[in-house]
Amino acid sequence: MMSKRSKIIFTTVVIAMALAGGLVFAQMRSGSYGSTNSTSIGQGATPVFALDAKYDVGPYPSFVPELAEGDGRQEVQSFCFTCHSTRYITMQPPLPGAIWEAEVNKMMKAYGAPIPEATAKKITAYLQEHYAPENRKEY
Amino acid sequence: MESIARKLSRRSTLKFLGAAGGGLALASWAQGTRSFAEASDGAKPLESFAGPGANPHWNSVGPYVTEPQKAPLILLTDRPVQLETPRYYFRTIFTPNEAFYVRWHLAEIPNSVDLAEWKLRVEGNVNKPMAFSLSDLMQKFKPASVAAVNQCSGNSRSRLQPRVPGGQWGNGAMGNAIWTGVRLRELLDAAGVKSGSAQVQVEGLDTGAGPKGMGSNRFLKSLDLTNAALDGTIVAYLMNGEPLPLLNGFPARLVVPGYFATYWTKSLSWIRVLETPDDNFWMKTAYRIPDTPRGTTTPEDMKTGKVKTIPIERMPVRSFLISPDGSSKIPAGLDVTLRGIAFSGYGKVNKVEISDDGGSTWKAAELGEDRGTYSFRGWQAAWTPKTPGRYSIAVRATDEKGNVQPDEPVWNPGGYLWNKIERQELVAGKAN
Fold it and tell me: Which residues of A touch B209 (CB under 8 A)?
């Protein structure tokens, strides 16, 4: 368990990282996600094709899913969301505990997610507790 | 509203109206008001997932969402963007650009591309590194066009038993388009591949938040320079005659006819000639299949750690019934036209058969126009449900290499290569 102080430091670091990431995105004009009107089905017209123009579609919409209430949810939201939407979790079929453990290990070892050991255990336990065949609910 | 309506092309407006109107008419004709009342009595919440059994639906279960330049499609994930094409779009041989499925690997995907700045670079082990603008690609090289199916390696992953983690696609992670662009070999020739080169690596404009050197930072794919598939490979800047939607790889993407989409790099910006085979994550660890017949294995065999794997390459033969789709009763005693598509990454589909008796007897369907070896091939067959009741229609395709779609499932930990014979339940009722 994190102490209150280290929690504050951790939160500050995460916010700083998120802000820095935002600035990089803005410069690269890539990886921008926002809350555009997701229910609208109005389509933009195909732009007239000019070979020296800038084509910009604006931010891609975000559809943040509801995650199960419980210990570990906050860790999942901060660490998993660094690289991908938590829809990667809610989209899955109910998966056995061993598979969830392997998934978290894959994110750390194969993809290099910088997750402290204790946090990884908490994330794994959360996924096993809410997204396995014996406990998966509709959210 | 008016401006939105005007922006919609006449063709797509008609298509939307046609789809909605047709669906409503059929539903009220076949079911009447009683069914609507029943449906509201037993109303269930929308599913957010399917499992642990196989996903029973043709498509995945996600909600419909609208992304830039796209029609409403089925959401798998929003970051990176993964969207599935609904079944009814496969009633045409060429999948509309706005309905074409989307699958990115990393979250930092391009929101914009400035064509005044953008260059496609050919670099690495070459005599003369090159940087082409889009107008260079369009004007300095003779355009080549090919009709080809783009299918995600994990298409139909939600069918596997036991289920495997990953994008839980139904059958809609595929599409067919006419791709127009420059032959990859011509671009390589322009730069001059040095002798002793092994592979050509491709990279697009997506990056990820992961650490440098890891698969979560860059998405890289490579093919051997001696691979015959490169002879048909093009760098496409047009899709069905129009610029690609940004989500499908504007301004140019690699097209490797016959191969799974993992090699069809979007927003392609670097073509790199390598002296040694690529051992990055996306070649060495991901997108690998067991080196077994059909790439199938078992969870038990995987646990032994002895299953040898190889990179995924060509798409096995598949076929689909698109309509009728089982959403309404069909009249008993009257002819129905069964319609669908088929394709194979190993060669032309030259036979499609249907069975209404669980696969004991098969009847040949009529094949549609041949649009190219690696294109969807349409098919249709007349069929009559003689009496009211439940029927199961199975569809099976054969390609020119003699590959026949099998009725056995596939299982591998990546959830790749699914091509089991598809079945559709149809209910025939008394015609009034």
Answer: 21, 82-83
